[in-house]
Amino acid sequence: MGIDLPPLPYAYDALEPKISKQTLTVHHDKHHAKYVTVAKGMIDGTDLAAKECKEILLEAHKAGNAGLFNNAAQAWNHEFYWNCMKPGGGGKPTGDLLAQIEKDFGSFEEFTKQFDTAGQTAFGSGWAWLSWDGSKLVVDKTIGAGNPMTDGKTPVLTMDVWEHAYYLDYQNLRPDYIKAFLDSLVNWDFVAAELAKVKK
């Protein structure tokens, strides 16, 4: 319960050369860790301290508490993001996930086009998402710490497009990072499991 900093689900160098050990170390141990530390400090001694991160970010959003929302949402977003990647990932999914993507987007290629566009057009810092809206899969982009859960959707995939996610490896070439994410990093097994949970 509460907000914590889980270890990465793989070694710090596991995603090389697409994402470097240096990037993962700074991103997880500095950026993600700070969101967790700040959020924990804000809820310490309150009723929220015993709640799950998802509940905390949704209650903060409902209450208009931007400071808590930003840090709790970033803690949740990052933990989810790490699980959305794996060594040797990417490419095309299979099975029920692929069938759902093709049903809702017309083709896998159309999905990747929309997801790429979401990532490239999130102005400044943000996230690209594949989410279940209750009846179908949809692509969204959010700015800052935004999360589709505040609109009643359930994320099944996310990609961090804050500069700290890619700048050490790609500098200003966000499109190259997005291509690497889709071609070589996405953990489609995790995405399929998340979709299966939400469709039950």
Written description of the protein model:
This protein has 200 residues and is mainly α. Helices cover 52% and strands 10% of the residues. It has eight helices and three strands. The protein has helices spanning 21-43, 53-63, 66-83, 95-105, 108-121, 167-170, 174-185, 188-199; strands spanning 126-132, 137-143, 154-160. The protein has a three-stranded antiparallel sheet with strand order 2-1-3, sandwiched between helices. The chain is globular, with a radius of gyration of 16 Å. The mean pLDDT is 96.
How is the secondary structure organized here?
Blueprint: H1 21-43, H2 53-63, H3 66-83, H4 95-105, H5 108-121, E1 126-132, E2 137-143, E3 154-160, H6 167-170, H7 174-185, H8 188-199
List keywords for this structure.
10% strand, 200 residues, 8 helices, 3-stranded antiparallel sheet, mainly alpha
The 3D shape can be described as globular
Residue runs with pLDDT of under 50 for 5 or more positions: none
- pLDDT averaged over residues: 96
Q: Helix count?
A: 8
Into which percentage range does the β-strand content fall?
A: 5-15%
Tell me the strand order in the biggest sheet.
Answer: 2-1-3
Largest sheet: 3 strands, antiparallel
State the end-to-end CA separation: 24 Å
Q: How would you spell out the order of helices and strands?
A: HHHHHEEEHHH
Helical amount: 40-55%
Let me know the number of strands.
Answer: 3
Structural class: mainly alpha
The gyration radius over C-alpha positions equals: 16 Å
